[in-house]
Structure formats: structure tokens, C-alpha cells
Amino acid sequence: MNIRIYYEDTDCGGIVYHTNYIKYCERARSELFFKHGVMPNTDRVGLVVRHIECDFLDSARLGDLLVVDSKIIKLGKTSIILQQNIECKNKIIFNARIKLACIDIKNKKIQKIPDEILKVLIKVMKNEK
In this structure, how many other beta carbons lie within 10 angstroms of the beta carbon of residue 60? Predict the structure, then answer.
């Protein structure tokens, strides 16, 4: 997924705020579903961030075009682990390993990933190979 950096993404010096990299990863994860015509949640379950490990390797600036690459590392019955990298000018400037858990929205308990979401994740994994 490509993301252009606008003034709203930066501080007064034109450098991207650190929290925005996590937002860009979230957008890219949502796009994995949207391009398959599926929502990343249902009326009863959703994927939530359980854990993030990330490294800020460099910074992006106003006007830069970023590329967010998302790869599924592990797909379990109730969780997913992704590797997400953000590149700027063919250089990785941010990387994150993110664990998502599937939960029941009402009772906030871990839930099996529903078939409609699982099908998209399997398609994404097959396209990565």
C-alpha cells in the first residue's frame, strides 16, 4: 500500500510523527481485506492488536511516498502474527511485528477467527509465496 506524506502527518519541521507509522500499518492491514471485498471484522468479532514490537530506523518527511508491506508470519485459530515494513525511497525506515487476536466484541473474550476472515487471510498468504 502506498501512502503520501502530507503536512498533517508531520511536525513543523516536516518530519512524520512516530505514532503515524503504526497508523499506516493499521491502514495497510485493513486494505488487505478491503481489496477482497470483506470487512476486517463482523458484527460479533474483530481483530485487535495484542502485541507490537517495532523499530524506527529512519524518518519520512513531508511529500515522501511510503510503501507499506504486510506479510503474514503465522496464522493460528485465534490469532495472526504479521511482519509490516514501511519503505521510503527503497529503504526500510520502520518495521513492526504485530500480533492480532480475534475477540468477541461484546464479551471481549478470545474467539476463533471466522471463516469469512480466515478465507481472506489464507488468500493473502498464498499470494505472498
Answer: 24
Domain range for 13: 2-128
pLDDT bucket at 18, cuts 50 / 70 / 90: very high
Q: What is the DSSP string of 2-36?
A: EEE--GGGB-TTSBBPHHHHHHHHHHHHHHHHHTT
* Alpha carbons 71 and 29: distance in angstroms, whole number: 10
pLDDT band, very low/low/confident/very high, at 129 (cuts 50, 70, 90): low
Count of structural domains within the chain: 1
Residues with a catalytic annotation lie at: 11
Structural contact between residues 58 and 88, judged by C-beta atoms closer than 8 angstroms? yes
Q: In what order do the strands lie in the sheet with 2-4?
A: 2-4, 65-75, 79-88, 91-104, 45-56
